[in-house]
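Can anyone check this?
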Amino acid sequence: MRRILATILGVTAGAWWIGVQADSSVLAVRLGAKDVVALAKFYDAAFGLKQIDKVADNSGATTEIIMRYGATVAAAKAGNSPEFLVAKREGGDTANAMAHAIFHVSDINATVAAAKAAGATMKGEVATVPIGGAPIKIATMTDPDGNVLEVMELPKGTDHLPHP
């Protein structure tokens, strides 16, 4: 009888725990930069991100630039896309190849060309990879500070990665 009660109590507690999980979504991505202002200009030129705010230290030096998508700065400030933060990387810190930003783009060739023109370095060529049975075009590159970036073009009419 004790085992049955313990099992029921355990299952009930597990169900309750699952039920109290909060909704979540991506709020922001943060990448490090040796020169915050220069790297923010790269993300504006390559991906159309606009500066919506900045953080400075006590001396007034910019330590982080907060960016978001928008046709203009005003549209980016009013928008609700996840934020992209370019933060000052400390002297001994290096770019981490595992942590990286992934962009969903409508035209991978145009995006790669813009990123290269803005200073990105390609890591291989554009490849088509099946994800969830759909052909996804993927390109990997590094920004001028060595951060790894990935861009993905989904099939027309698809707005997220398929995961059957």
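Reply from J.R.: I decoded it. The CA atoms of residues 48 and 69 lie 6 Å apart.
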